[in-house]
Each structure stands twice: as structure tokens, then as C-alpha cells.
Amino acid sequence: MARKVTHEKRGPARLDESDMGDDGMIYVCQCGLSGSKPLCDGSHNATADEEDGVVHEYDGDDPDGKRRAVVETVYADE
Ligand code: FES
To answer: Residue 43 CA: which ligand 1 atom is closest?
Structure first.
């Protein structure tokens, strides 16, 4: 499983105590779908049924909404 994610930010995010959950932990999004980046907001649940060997792309900010398989990805340095 893999997914295509587009990022627009150009710098780091500073985290502090206010970012901690009730359990005292800070959860950083690794799936790329969170609407509260860099924090996890549970959107990763939408990736549970992604197929191995297929690149998925999620439309808009709603990962539970439209999802499609990316047929081909072309990189500038190829
Ligand atoms: S890991 Fe991305 S929303 Fe949880």
C-alpha cells in the first residue's frame, strides 16, 4: 500500500504541551491524510483497506470521501 500526498507547507511545525492528547502523548500523522497536520486526527483509518502494490490518491481534505488508484506517477528526475 502506498499513497500520493501533496504538501504545501515549507517549514517545520513546532509542537508543545498543548498538542498532547489526554494520555500525555503526541501523535504525529504518518499517513499524510490528517486535516490537523502534523498531528494525527484519525484519518488514517481510511487507509485500512488499501491494496498492496497500488498507489492511492485521496481527493480534497476528506479521506473518507473519494479515493482513486493512481495509474502512473512520473517524477521530474526520470
Ligand atoms: S496517521 Fe495520519 S491521521 Fe493518523
So the answer is: 3
Calpha distance 16→58 (Å, rounded): 29
In a domain, 13, yes or no: no
Which ligand 1 atom is the nearest neighbour of the CA of 33? 2
Ligand 1 lined by 31 (C-beta under 6 Å): yes
Q: Does residue 3 belong to any structural domain of this protein?
A: no
Kindly give the parts of the chain with pLDDT less than 70: 60-65, 72-74, 78
- CATH number, domain with residue 39: 3.40.5
Average pLDDT over all residues of the chain: 85
How many CA atoms lie within 13 Å of 18's alpha carbon, on the beta-carbon side?
1
pLDDT at 7: 81
Residue-level pLDDT at 11: 94
Predicted model pTM:
0.75
